[in-house]
Design brief:
The complex is a heterodimer. By secondary structure, chain A is α+β, with helices and mostly antiparallel strands. Chain A has eleven helices and 17 strands. Chain A has a domain at 104-190 and 207-257 and 319-388: Phosphatase 2c, domain 1 (4-Layer Sandwich). Chain B has one domain: START domain (Alpha-D-Glucose-1,6-Bisphosphate, Chain A, domain 4), CATH 3.30.530. Chain B has three helices and ten strands, in the order ββαββαββββββα. In chain B, helix 2 (70-77) crosses helix 3 (178-202). The chains are: A alpha+beta, B alpha+beta. Chain A: Residues 104-389 form the PPM-type phosphatase domain.
Chain lengths: 399, 203
Amino acid sequence: MAGICCGVVGETEPAAPVDSTSRASLRRRLDLLPSIKIVADSAVAPPLENCRKRQKRETVVLSTLPGNLDLDSNVRSENKKARSAVTNSNSVTEAESFFSDVPKIGTTSVCGRRRDMEDAVSIHPSFLQRNSENHHFYGVFDGHGCSHVAEKCRERLHDIVKKEVEVMASDEWTETMVKSFQKMDKEVSQRECNLVVNGATRSMKNSCRCELQSPQCDAVGSTAVVSVVTPEKIIVSNCGDSRAVLCRNGVAIPLSVDHKPDRPDELIRIQQAGGRVIYWDGARVLGVLAMSRAIGDNYLKPYVIPDPEVTVTDRTDEDECLILASDGLWDVVPNETACGVARMCLRGAGAGDDSDAAHNACSDAALLLTKLALARQSSDNVSVVVVDLRKRRNNQASS
Amino acid sequence: MRSPVQLQHGSDATNGFHTLQPHDQTDGPIKRVCLTRGMHVPEHVAMHHTHDVGPDQCCSSVVQMIHAPPESVWALVRRFDNPKVYKNFIRQCRIVQGDGLHVGDLREVMVVSGLPAVSSTERLEILDEERHVISFSVVGGDHRLKNYRSVTTLHASDDEGTVVVESYIVDVPPGNTEEETLSFVDTIVRCNLQSLARSTNRQ
């Protein structure tokens, strides 16, 4: 782990001993990375439904100007560039921490080398109470063609899931999540009609490039990896090639399987639907789309479907964290490495009492993973969510 | 496995699609292929969709019916400088030579994310405002369609609508079959023409 850390931090402290267990040391090393500006915003976020503890928002602005992408060279010129963070439209990075006793989360989402930011992240702690238990919602959406389907998932999917879970008979998670994703897909497909009637919502109009081009773009879609975390279970629903990985006692356990067109069962499904997979710069549905399931992408239905695969995992005392990320991370960082990095950050913070430290640790983990992906020349947007799953020592809260 | 090239759409008159398979007319290394054979089209349309296909090349065409007069459709199709008005896969386009109204003018298009292409440099080959014919060829870019050339013609249908015929010829890239190449390009062209129909009707 120290090796990875050194690799990222590069040559700033070649002789300095790496103390991978100290959060302070890690924070210091992160601070040394150039072009990072940490803005501590004292504004208090609106209180969450069931969580009225002190909240603090921390925004990390990461420059991803092309010239700044090579972390090693950044580090070499650190003295000149340090703290002179540059923000441009191509480099909006946000890492948010929600400081409260439940739950502890870190997220980072960067444009990276791409021209457009088409990833979206959705974090809704305590989005739902069921049987007097708190449920949390986390989602990563990686758009293609344009950003508006991923944006729509960010805006709507947690509400759709909430409504579906509220009418869920028993623990029919699979059916409920499949229904939710199908509803999401329908909303995306029908969005055009709403647009004509009501006009686009402001946020859409501002953020969506293709809006001006054609309201009815069939050729836009998004992956969706969503996790609902309850005190007892982790429910992961996945559609596309984003991924959820559980770090349990140091072991990386994937909770989703990427929907790639050359996955044998997906290949058969596509062929049975009358489609075909063509190797055209990688395996693609009809030679076009490099994933076999997605929200949206009407023009590739029924070969590309919005149905998620759902896993339900019982939580254990050995669970450390959950990582949700877009393929901008997973293309260049293996599951095991990602778990190792996150674990190191969390261990540095220690479990339990110091809630701020644990939050910082999750943010550190998300940020460090993102930096690692950029250092490894990830060519895509990179979005990472790290959720601390360790049970409190004092057992005050169960999630 | 059914190939989308032989598209069941081909015989499905309700959605207005016909994907035509090339018909060999001569033997030898270069084959002359008329892609509108069997259709009732004006002579100049048939002529424009006749291609000389070399070895390791392939050609195909997609037909789209639009319930609007040719003039309305032409207003969108003629925009060599702004293909985004109906082509969903284009993120950005700029004219890099000329004004987009003359043969030889060049445009550079950037492709949206998620496709096996980044950019394409294209040359205007035909712009016939009277007969409603536009043609461009690909002269560069970051994608696998080498020596691509397409021709799009509009003519009035019997029911006062428009028949759009778009045909293309392209090299079969190394590592792929002719069938795969046709399947891929047909998907893109079909999507564009469906979008053209929607965009025209929205005008």
